[in-house]
Each structure stands twice: as structure tokens, then as C-alpha cells.
Amino acid sequence: MLQCFSRLAQFRRHRLIAGNSLYFYQSVRLVLSLPLRMTDPAVKRVVSEIVRSPEDKRVYRGLEFNNGLKAVLISDPTTDKSSAGLDVNIGSLSDPGNISGIAHFCEHMLFLGTEKYPKENEYSQFLSEHAGSSNAFTSGEHTNYYFDVSHEHLEGALDRFAQFFLCPLFDESCKDREVNAVDSEHEKNLMNDAWRLFQLEKATGNPNHPFSKFGTGNKLTLETRPSKDGIDIRQELLKFHSTYYSSNLMGLCVLGRESLDELTTMVVKLFGEVENKNVPIPEFPEHPFQEEHLRQFYKVVPIKDIRNLYVTFPIPDLQKYYKSNPGHYLGHLIGHEGPGSLLSELKSKGWVNTLVGGQKEGAKGFMFFIINVDLTEEGLLHVDDIIFHMFQYIQKLRTEGPQEWVFQECKDLNTVAFRFKDKERPRGYTSKVAGLLHYYPLEEILAAEYLLQDFRPDLIEMVLDKLRPEYVRVAVVSKSFEGQTDKTEEWYGTHYKQEPISEEILKKWGNADFNGKFKLPMKNEFIPTNFDIYPLEKDSPSAPTLIKDTAMSKVWFKQDDKFFLPKACLNFEFFSPFAYVDPIHCNMAYLYLELLKDSLNEYAYAAELAGLNYDLQNTIYGMYLSVKGYNDKQHILLKKIIEKMANFEIDEKRFDIIKEAYMRSLNNFRAEQPHQHAMYYLRLLMTEVAWTKDELKEALDDVTLPRLKAFIPQLLSRLHIETLLHGNITKESALGMMQMVEDMLMNQAHTKPLLPSQLIRYREVQVPDGGWYVYQQRNEVHNNCGIEIYYQTDMQTTHDNMLLELFCQIISEPCFNTLRTKEQLGYIVFSGPRRANGVQGLRFIIQSEKAPHYLESRVEAFLKATEKSVEEMNDEAFQKHIQALAIRRLDKPKKLAAECAKYWGEIISQQYNFDRGD
């Protein structure tokens, strides 16, 4: 898989899609933003021509303020929610050397009162009362704040938001409590292998480089040590904010229903006065991995039973080459998963399961190129050989040289992706755009991540030249290293051993020769070419309609009448009485589908690159299949999947590998977060039939290859298929696709319809009135505990749903403010409705270092206080909550897949209330 790691958020992963062509500019230049007819002394420059997708109906304006702040304004008269995001180009890399985590701590404290709005929950309460929400994150270079709110209340929310950057209080009374919140957040991550490995990577570079810092912070770094050293942490917060929260380091994005002129007036008034301290943009020209940190081998002990190989090369910052993107080109080839790829060869030898390759962001001044693989048991014994094959493939790329047709294909893929990109939800969109303002010109801010214009073989060769054994760092993560380590990382306690890679091995890798099994990818036949939008059928219904109802299948159909993009979503539930009979059958259904996906991977990867994805998983009722993306060649992928499903031949080597990986995943559940355990066990208790992880593990030994081979035809022998076909398709083509699915299963797998009595539905357990039940499970991995408290109400009905959601709306902000902010029960505090199998209730989820019985007592106390506050609530406040709930419920899906998921939820739950939101 091609992988790009964004520098805007730690571990936020996305496929890099960057492309352009002559057609790209011809299509987008037709839809530019309106000119600004105003002059304001606070505004230095106005950008009216911002390149946007032809399908994007919003209008944009870019502003550069005299104080250095850059802003993008988005006017969308149809938006349900307004939103804003502000990104400060300062993060944990700028923490002072003696106070780790102060950038992150500053982020927390800004939410707790300002001079203009001193009440510590003023901001969150205002948002909650107006159907809003907020969040923030801190990474190495960025602190990013964002919110959404009902469109009528953008100005009020924006005013409160702006005070974060003008006059925060950093109130002494909040300081100690919020240190606990940061510490709780760190505790949550303490046993998370991703966080542990990231900090280990930082710790094994140059200790004097800012990259090595511990960015999260905890009680030790923010309270204990500063107090011991006579440091006033509040004064340090004020100093940090005063020093770095400068307008020239800020990017702002605001989206609302207002016109661009109205938004401009609003933003200028609120943000034009943010002080410009002319802080230099932090740059880190020296790479954290210098000569002494290269050619090193790390053996790392994880928390979970995982086996991973991480191969890392330091490379220069490629950001300025975003229109050529040599890292993307090489990641596309090295991370490819089709025939002749590096992954294909390594899988054929039984050494790996997955492979990710590509550039990984570091900070302004340095990057990394990574090749990461998930190892099999045998692969763990062949690490040197795996890396040898990596260098063989890299050498092939050097020998053949940069290929313009590969670059052009990436360009074409991204042109299509930008032209038909889905509309984003406001909150995520403003947050993202605010961060991008630090990297791209205002004119290209929306298109920059898609732009590929210049084929630069010299840049590709420059990066290739960095992918040599003399620059490599290797880390292998495995439980097998327990007892073999001699070092411990300071902040997470990760055990590891570091040793230099021998000259003999380096020489072997350096002499990697030609391997005839490696091939460049074939031209991608899944790239869509037909983008026609089918005309709406006469009297097209506004909700899915049942167009076929037989013993074999039930077909729901909905032609897209909102988004008008050349995309469709195909959802299938294959009901089978054999899929969940007992733990053995459940295991066999899982392994069948995992092996099926594994065998389809080389074929389906090209479709994935071209924007056509599928998902296949076992459920308590059978099997779920979805195919989503461009509709042009969707039927080709669907046909291949069903054909493979009906005629599947199991590879014995892959069976052993995937069965072993499945056993590890069952064992690894013990290391999941405590609150996830609580939610899992509650689901088991409340569901009529459910097999536990322990039952599945015990039964897995009984699953043999012959038994699985015999099970597959049994599973497919009788099926009932319930389907939703939704998007840019016609009723005729929908019926045709369904007929193809049925014909292939009946003719090739000899499938017959389920008997009516075999079509079962599992029920929810009814909790007796006045009942109080406690289920406890001990976890040895985490120091924290998790609790879910569930108050079952009744069956779902429109009236009862409304009452439950209104109550959840009323208590949501007070719950967070009381239990998390004031009482500091833990970082994770949640309240809301729980719905399953047609039944619903109120739930609280908390993860904390405090004992579960104490958490339960605090929830009970909160509910008792809530009862009184609701009784005393005046009509004005009550109406605000009603209005906020109405706005939340009327918030429409922003893309086809989201609307389809809403409809599918109604179908699979057999509620069929398609207009529930109205």
C-alpha cells in the first residue's frame, strides 16, 4: 500500500492523492470564487481565484491580513452547520527543553475561559446549546482548534473561539485539574504500541534534536518536576502563548451560510487584532537521524502479539516539490500490491501479510521514507532476506529509471479524484484547510494535495539515491524478543535492544541483484472513463424502495438525487444459518472471508487505487459485502468477487498463516483500551446469542483445512440476500447486477433460497424493571479501568427515540463538564444513547484510574443532580435544547456513502424508517 503520513496530526493516515493535467485546469478555472468589493486596512491581500473542483458549489475567498494571518472563507448557503478551524504553526517540537508537553497543555487550557468569557465551560456550553461541538489536537509542528455550530450562531461561536488567541485566562484554579487530564490522556496511550513505537523512533535519533521530545506531557513533566525546580507552570503557559501564538503563524478557515463579504467582515473584526509577534516559522534543517543513527538494528518488545518490520531511510523535506512529488511516485511503486510487486513476491514466499511504502512527514526540514511489513512466523526468521528483496526492487527502479507513464497514471487518478471529490463535513474541512495554509499558496489551497504537474526524473533519482543500505535503519517488533533486551525507553517503558548492522549484511544488501519476478505495475484498467450522470427516473422516490422481493433476495433501490456524482454504493447481506451456529462455524466464516480477501488482493488493488473499494466481513447473520466508488466499472469488481466467492480454492500455506494471525488478534484483545472492553462485554451480555473471544480461541484449534473446505459449500448452500443499491445507477442496472449475483451463486455454488424458518433475527435481552446487574472482568495490561453503565429504556419508536435523544442533548455538556473537567474522572467521558436490535437506552462510558464502583457512584450522583436541574430548567433553556436537537437530526449526510450507511442501518435493523431524520 502506498502510504503518506501527514505532518498535521500524529498517526493520522491518508492515501496521498496529488495530481493535475491540462484537463484539470481547463475544468476548474470555469468555477472560481467571486471578487471582493471592499477595502479594509486589516487586509493586505484578497485572493478571489481559488482553484476548486467543478463539482464544488461553495464559493471561496482567501485573505492575507496585515498581521500575517492567512484565512480561507467558504460561503455555502446550503450548509446545516457552520464551522471554523484555526491552526497555529507551533507544536510540541517547540516545547522548552525543561518542560515536555507544554504546547499540548496550552491546547487544553485554552478551552477553560478567557477574559471576555471567563466561565470555564462558556465555549463548550454555547456550542452544546446550539447543536455544536469542538475539538483540538497538538502534533510536532501544529496546534489545531476547530468547532461546528448551528448556522445561525456562527458569529457567537466565532467570537468565543477568537478569544483563545486574544486573551486566554489560564486560570490557576483550572491548571491542576487540566494537568490531570493531560496525564490521563498519556495513561490512555501508555500501552498503545503505535504511540510506544513513535516515541522510541524519536528517542533513538539525535537526543539534542527537537524531534526527540516527549510531546504529550504528563504529571511528572507539567507538575512534579517544575514544582521541584521552582518553575511556575502557569507563568510558563503565559510565556509560551505570548511567545508563539502569533498571527503570522496562524491559518484560519471559516465556513458559513453568510456571503463572502459578511464572513469577511466577521473575521476581520475578530481576528484582525490578533497580535503579530513576527515569530520565525520553526524550521529544522538538520535531520534527527545522523550518521551515528544509521545502519542500526532495533529489536523491540510490543504490548500486543504483533510482528512488524520497519525499514526507514532519512530523506530531505520534499514539501516544496509538491507538484512533482517524487516520494509519491516511489511510494506508488514500492507500495504497490499487484502482480509482480514487492508485496506479491514476499507473500508468495510466506514471509509477509501486508506492506506499506512511501514518504512519512517529519517536520519542516526533514522527512523519512519507510517500508513497513507485517511479518509471518516464517518471515520473522527471514528479515535479512526480506530487506534484500526490498533492495532488489529498489535496484530495479534505478535500472529502469523513472517512467513517465507511471507518473501520468498517478496524475490521471488524482485528476479524477479531485474532479469528483465528495463534499466534506464542515468541522473536518475547516480544520484541514487551516493546517494546509502553512504549506500552499492561497490560490491552490484546495487543489494542492492533488497537484501533479511536473515529471521530474532528477528528483525521483535523488530520492532513490537515499534508499541505500548505508542510510538504513531497521526495527523488528516481536514478542519473541522478550528477555533479550537491555534498554528501556523513558516515557512509555518500551523494552528494546540496539545493535549495529554487520558489514557482511550491509554488503549483501548493497549487492542486491536482478530479480526477474519483479515487474512494474500493469496499466490500471479500473480507471473510470464514463462519468455520465443518469437522468432521474420519473417520480423518483426520496427513499429506497423495494424493487424485488423473492425467496432468494430482497432488493432495495435508490437512485441518487442529491450528490450527482458518478458513484454508487452496493450493499449486500448474505443471510446464512450456518455462519454463527457455534464458535467453530463463526471462526470458519471469518477465515473463509479473510482468505477470500487475501486471494483477491492483487486483483482488487488496482480498483482501490482507481477509487473503487470493497469490504467483506462475517456477521452474526452471515456475510456482508459492500462495493463503493465510481460506478463505471463497479460491476466488473462485483462479478469478480462473487465468482471468487462461489469457486474459492484455499491455499494451504495462506490458511496456516491467516489462522495464526487470527489467533493472535483474538489474544490481542486483552490489550485493547479498558473502555472498549466494557463496551464489548456489555454487548455480549445484552445480545441473545454472542460468542466470546475465549470461546472463539478455544474453538479455533478445531478448525482444520479439510473442515473449512467442507464448510464453504455448506455456508453457500442456502442464502437469503438483502441488498441496497444506491447511487448513479438505474433500476434496470440494479436488477441486472442482482440477477448476476444470484445466477453466479446458483449456477456455480448451487445456492438455494433459505427456508422461511431459517431466516432468524437475534433479540436483545430485556432488563427487568428495577434490576441492577454488575459484570466485572479483570485486565492485566492497563492501569486504568473502564466502565459502561447502561440504563435500558424500551423498544425504539419515533416518540421514545426523540425523548431519549433530547435527554442526551440536555446532559451531554454538563456530563463532560462535571465528570471530566471538574471531577477529573478520566480523559474518556461519554454519555449518549445506545441502540441495538431495536432496543435502546442511555449509556455512560468512562475510562479512569479510579475504581469502577466509584465511577458508578459519580454517575448516579450526576443523574440525581440532573433530575433537579431539569425540573428547574426554564422554558427558554429547554427550547434551546429542543432546537439544538432538531438541528442535529436535520444535519444531512454530506456524501453518498454517508447517506447509504444511514439507509443501510435502517434495512439491516429491519426498522425501515428511512425518513427518521425528518
In short:
The chain has 918 residues and is of the alpha+beta class. Residues 234-412 form the Peptidase M16 C-terminal domain.
Notes on the structure:
One of its GO terms (cellular component) is extracellular space. GO terms for molecular function: ATP binding; metal ion binding; metalloendopeptidase activity. Belongs to the peptidase M16 family. Keywords: Allosteric enzyme, ATP-binding, Cell membrane, Cytoplasm, Hydrolase, Membrane, Metal-binding, Metalloprotease, Nucleotide-binding, Protease, Secreted, Zinc. It is found in: Cell membrane; Cytoplasm, Cytosol; Secreted. The strands form five sheets. This protein has a seven-stranded mixed beta sheet, sandwiched between helices. A seven-stranded mixed beta sheet has the order 12-13-11-14-10-16-15. Strands 17, 18, 19, 20, 21, 22 and 23 form a seven-stranded mixed beta sheet that branches. It folds into four domains: about 40-270, Metalloenzyme, LuxS/M16 peptidase-like (Cytochrome Bc1 Complex, Chain A, domain 1), CATH 3.30.830.10; about 290-510, Cytochrome Bc1 Complex, Chain A, domain 1, CATH 3.30.830; about 545-760, Metalloenzyme, LuxS/M16 peptidase-like (Cytochrome Bc1 Complex, Chain A, domain 1, 2-Layer Sandwich), CATH 3.30.830.10; about 785-910, Cytochrome Bc1 Complex, Chain A, domain 1 (2-Layer Sandwich). The radius of gyration is 28 Å and the shape is globular. A hairpin with a 3-residue loop joins β17 (about 545-550) and β18. It is built from 28 helices and 26 strands. Helices cover about 40% and strands about 20% of the residues. The model is unreliable at about 5-40 (pLDDT under 50). α3 runs antiparallel to α25 and α18 (about 585-610) packs across α23 (about 705-715). The chain is α+β, with helices and mostly antiparallel strands.
